[in-house]
Inverse folding.
C-alpha cells in the first residue's frame, strides 16, 4: 500500500537576469525563487491498484514519482510505500520497487542488454532459475528475444524501451513507477508496450503508478486517475466517474440516405440550437445532453431516412483537458 | 570476507566496456607512452648536457626518463575514470539509477574505478618491464619483485585516497552548476605538489618540508620512491599510515558531503 499525507516539495531555483551583465552579476550575487512543486498532497493506493497520473508539464507528476521512489527528499509530509519511508532507501524497499523512465535509459549504453540483466541478477540477488524464467517470460511477451545480445545504443527507441521494461521487472517488483513509458514511440510500439503492461499486471498484480501524456495509455490501463495541476490534485477518482460527472454531452452521428429537404424544420423538430447540430451533405452530428440522447435519436429516426447511426462518448482526453484548464474538479 | 557477486559483475562489465573501445585503448596506450618518452628524453637530455652533469638531484638521465614514463601511468591508475564521473551523474540524472538499486553508490563507483585502473596497471607493468630490460642502461636502477609488490600496495591505497579526494570536488556538483574547473585544479595540484610534473627532490627543501603536511607527496612521490627502491621499511610503514589517515579523512568528508548533497538533488533528467 502507498500512503501519502500532507506532502509538499519546494525547489530553490536561482534566477539570472538576461544578457552579459546579468551573467556577470550572477557571479557575485544570486537571486533565488522558491518553486512549490507539490502542495499538501494526500494519496492512498491499495495493493494491486494501478493509477494514472495526469497533468501538464510542470504539474508535479514526476516530482511525486521521484519522492515515492526515494530519489528526492520531500520538504514536508509523510510518505509510506509498502510500509517503508522511501527516502531512507532501505534495501528491503529498493528490492521490491522499480522505476521506469521513458526519457532516461537505465541500462548500460555500451553493452548488450543481456550483460545489464546479468548485473541486475546479481544486484537483486535473483536466483538462477527465477532469473531464467523471468528473462524468458519478459522477452517473449515483449517479442525482443533476438535483440538481447545487441549493444543497447544500437537498438531502436521501441526496442530500447522494451529492454528497459525488462530490466526494471526482472526482480518481480511489488511497486512499479512508470514515468511516460511510451514517450516518443510509434503507434505500434506504444500498443505493444501497453499490451505488455496489461498482461504483466494480470500476471503479477503489482501496485502501478503510470504517468503519461497519452490518453490511450491511461484509458487502456488505469481504472483510477489522479489529475494534477500546479502541484495539487484537482481530481482523484475513477475514469468512469469522470465520464459520468463531466461528460455532459454525447455525440450522435447519423449518415443519411439523402440530404434533409428542410434543414430548418429538422432543427425545429429536434428543438436544437445551431451550435449543437452540424449538418453537412449526408451527415448529421448532434452534441446531445446525456438525458436527451434517446429522444433525439428517436426523432432523427422518425424524421430522416437513416443509413447508419452511432452514439459516441465525449472524448476523455478533451474532458480531462477541460478539467486541467479549469482546474477545479474537486 | 566474501565479495558480493554484484561487485565482481560490475568489475567484469566495466572491463568489457573498456575493451569495447579497443581503438581508443591502444591509441591511448601507445600514444601516451611514445609522447612521454620523446618529451622527457629531449627536454632532460638538453638539461643534462647544458649542466655537463651525469646526475642531478639523485637522478641520472635514464632514471629521469623512466620516472616520466611511469609517473603519468601512476597518475592514470589513481584517476581511474575521468573528471565528471560522479558530477556527470548528478547533472544528467543518471544518479537516479544508483539510488534505486539496493547497493552502495560508493562501492559501485569504486569498483568501476578499480576496473579502469586495472588496464592502466597492466600498461605500467608492460612498460616498466620493457624499459627496464631493453632500454635502461643505468645499473643503479634496480627493480625487485618485493619492491614492486610494496609499490602495488601503496598504489592501491593512494588510488583510494585520490578517489575520495576527487569525489569531494565531484559531489560539489550537488550545489554548483559546473565543477569542471575544480576538477582540473584538484588534478593539477595533486600532480604538481605530489611531484608528478617535477620530482620533489627538485623542489626547495623548505617547500618539501611544508608539503609533508599535505597529502600530495604521499599520493605521487611516495609510490615513485617505492618503485625505484628509494625507501626504508620504517619510512614505508610511516608513509603508508599517514596516507591511510588521509584516506580516512577524505572518506569522512566525502560521505558528509554526499549525505548533505542528496537533499539538494533534484533528479533532473527524468
Amino acid at each position: 500500500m502507498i500512503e501519502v499525507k500532507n506532502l509538499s516539495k519546494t525547489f530553490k531555483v536561482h534566477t539570472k537576469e538576461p544578457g552579459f551583465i546579468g551573467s556577470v552579476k550572477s557571479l557575485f550575487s544570486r537571486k533565488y525563487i522558491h518553486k512549490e512543486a507539490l502542495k499538501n498532497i494526500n494519496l492512498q493506493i491499495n495493493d494491486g491498484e494501478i493509477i494514472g497520473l495526469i497533468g501538464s508539464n510542470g504539474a508535479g507528476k514526476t516530482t511525486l514519482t521521484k519522492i515515492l521512489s526515494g530519489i528526492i527528499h520531500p520538504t514536508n509530509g509523510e510518505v509510506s510505500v509498502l510500509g517503508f519511508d522511501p527516502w531512507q532507501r532501505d534495501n528491503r524497499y529498493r528490492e521490491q520497487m522499480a522505476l521506469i523512465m521513458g526519457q532516461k535509459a537505465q541500462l548500460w549504453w555500451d553493452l548488450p542488454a543481456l550483460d545489464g540483466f546479468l548485473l541486475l541478477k546479481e544486484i537483486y540477488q535473483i536466483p538462477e532459475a527465477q532469473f531464467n524464467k523471468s528473462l524468458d517470460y519478459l522477452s517473449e511477451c515483449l517479442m525482443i528475444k533476438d535483440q538481447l545480445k545487441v549493444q543497447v545504443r544500437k537498438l531502436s527507441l521501441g526496442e530500447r524501451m522494451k529492454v528497459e521494461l525488462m530490466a526494471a521487472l526482472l526482480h518481480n517488483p511489488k511497486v512499479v513507477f512508470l514515468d511516460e513509458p511510451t514517450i516518443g514511440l510509434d503507434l505500434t510500439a506504444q500498443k505493444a508496450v501497453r499490451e505488455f503492461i496489461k498482461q504483466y499486471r494480470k500476471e503479477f498484480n503489482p501496485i502501478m503508478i503510470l504517468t503519461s501524456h497519452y490518453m490511450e495509455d491511461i484509458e487502456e490501463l488505469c481504472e483510477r486517475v489522479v489529475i494534477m495541476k500546479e502541484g495539487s490534485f484537482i481530481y482523484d477518482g475513477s475514469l468512469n466517474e469522470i465520464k459520468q460527472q463531466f461528460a455532459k454531452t454525447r455525440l450522435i452521428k447519423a449518415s443519411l440516405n439523402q440530404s434533409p429537404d428542410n434543414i430548418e424544420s429538422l432543427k425545429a423538430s429536434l428543438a436544437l440550437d445551431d451550435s449543437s447540430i452540424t449538418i453537412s451533405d449526408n451527415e448529421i452530428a448532434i452534441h446531445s445532453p446525456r438525458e436527451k440522447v434517446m429522444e433525439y435519436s428517436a426523432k432523427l429516426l422518425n424524421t430522416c431516412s437513416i443509413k447508419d447511426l452511432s452514439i459516441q462518448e465525449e472524448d476523455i482526453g478533451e474532458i480531462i483537458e477541460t478539467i486541467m484548464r479549469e482546474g477545479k474538479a474537486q | 570476507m566474501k565479495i558480493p557477486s554484484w561487485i565482481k559483475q560490475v568489475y567484469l562489465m566495466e572491463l568489457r566496456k573498456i575493451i569495447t573501445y579497443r581503438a581508443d585503448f591502444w591509441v591511448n596506450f601507445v600514444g601516451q607512452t611514445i609522447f612521454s618518452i620523446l618529451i622527457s628524453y629531449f627536454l632532460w637530455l638538453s638539461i643534462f648536457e647544458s649542466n655537463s652533469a651525469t646526475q642531478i638531484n639523485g637522478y641520472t638521465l635514464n632514471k629521469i626518463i623512466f620516472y616520466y614514463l611511469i609517473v603519468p601511468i601512476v597518475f592514470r591508475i589513481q584517476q581511474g575514470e575521468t573528471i565528471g564521473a560522479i558530477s556527470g551523474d548528478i547533472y544528467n540524472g543518471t544518479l537516479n539509477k544508483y539510488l534505486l538499486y539496493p547497493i552502495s553508490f560508493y562501492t559501485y563507483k569504486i569498483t568501476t574505478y578499480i576496473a579502469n585502473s586495472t588496464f592502466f596497471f597492466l600498461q605500467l607493468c608492460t612498460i616498466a618491464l620493457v624499459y627496464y630490460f631493453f632500454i635502461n642502461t643505468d645499473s643503479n636502477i634496480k627493480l625487485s619483485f618485493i619492491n614492486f609488490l610494496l609499490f602495488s600496495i601503496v598504489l592501491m591505497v593512494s588510488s583510494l585516497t585520490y578517489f575520495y579526494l576527487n569525489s569531494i570536488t565531484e559531489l560539489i556538483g550537488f550545489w554548483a552548476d559546473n565543477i569542471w574547473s575544480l576538477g582540473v585544479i584538484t588534478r593539477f595540484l595533486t600532480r604538481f605538489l605530489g611531484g608528478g610534473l617535477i620530482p620533489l627532490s627538485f623542489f626547495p627543501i623548505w617547500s618539501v618540508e611544508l608539503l609533508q603536511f599535505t597529502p600530495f607527496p604521499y599520493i605521487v612521490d611516495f609510490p615513485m620512491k617505492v618503485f625505484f627502491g628509494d625507501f626504508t621499511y620504517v619510512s614505508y610503514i610511516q608513509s603508508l599510515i599517514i596516507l591511510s589517515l588521509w584516506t580516512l579523512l577524505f572518506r569522512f568528508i566525502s560521505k558528509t558531503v554526499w549525505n548533505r548533497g542528496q537533499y539538494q538533488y533534484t533528479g533532473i533528467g527524468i
